[in-house]
Amino acid sequence: VIVTIPSSCQKDPFGQSSSRFVVRPVQQQDLSEVAKILAESFHLQPDFMRWLIPIMRMGIYEDLRNRWRSASPDYACLVALDTTYREGQAGYLVGTVEIGLRSANPWQPRTSQYAYLSNLAVHPASRRRGVAYQLLVACDRAVLAWGFQDIYLHVLENNHQARKLYLKGNYRVAAADPNWGFWFFGQPRRLFLHKNLRERKLS
Questions:
Q1: pTM (2 decimals)?
Q2: 3-state secondary structure 150-182
Q3: Adjacent-strand bridge partners of 76
Q4: What is the CATH number of the domain that holds 100?
Q5: pLDDT tens, 80-90?
Q6: Into how many domains does the chain fold?
Q7: Assigned domain for 179 exists
Q8: Which domain holds residue 93?
Q9: What is the pLDDT of residues 89-123, one digit of tens each?
Q10: pLDDT tens, position by position, 61-77
Q11: Is residue 161 part of a domain?
Q12: Which of 14, 51, 89, 187 could hold 181 in an S-S bridge, CB 3.0 to 4.6 Å?
């Protein structure tokens, strides 16, 4: 899955008035930067807990490397690259997402599989430029190529920015975790979102 994406006319945070993005499968040399973007995307409260980020980054890197090494045909880690020239480098990584198959019934894994999207993250300097949405579009294409028509994902109920993005991408709430986690521990609920690809023809 390789998608070339013209950017919007919004100002590039690195000083460029326009740029281009390319979405492609992750490569081994990308894994460290992907782990960094994922670790920095976690909302750690209070702020002093951010000292955990380097530790989290190491764990995320090992998980990514293991998934990359043992990847099945029905798994993809995609990255978005900004192809504009910056600091002697063209094609620097600005976002990532993973898409794969999960089984609703562990006793019948092949007959109850569904496409599941996870770990969508964009570098803070490249947000609000359409990168995340284009990663979602690339996932749509991958899932259709696998012969599936539906995609699912989880999002926290209080993550309003992400929910707005998924709503734009035609995801709808299919289920929600019980409220007991919020009432007893103050934790937001997870929402289980669903998108049917037949409802919107991809260009």
A1: 0.79
A2: EEEEEEECCCHHHHHHHHHCCCEEEEECCCHHH
A3: 99
A4: 3.40.630.30
A5: 999 876 666 66
A6: 1
A7: no
A8: 3-148
A9: 667 899 999 999 998 765 555 667 999 999 999 99
A10: 999 999 999 878 889 99
A11: no
A12: 187
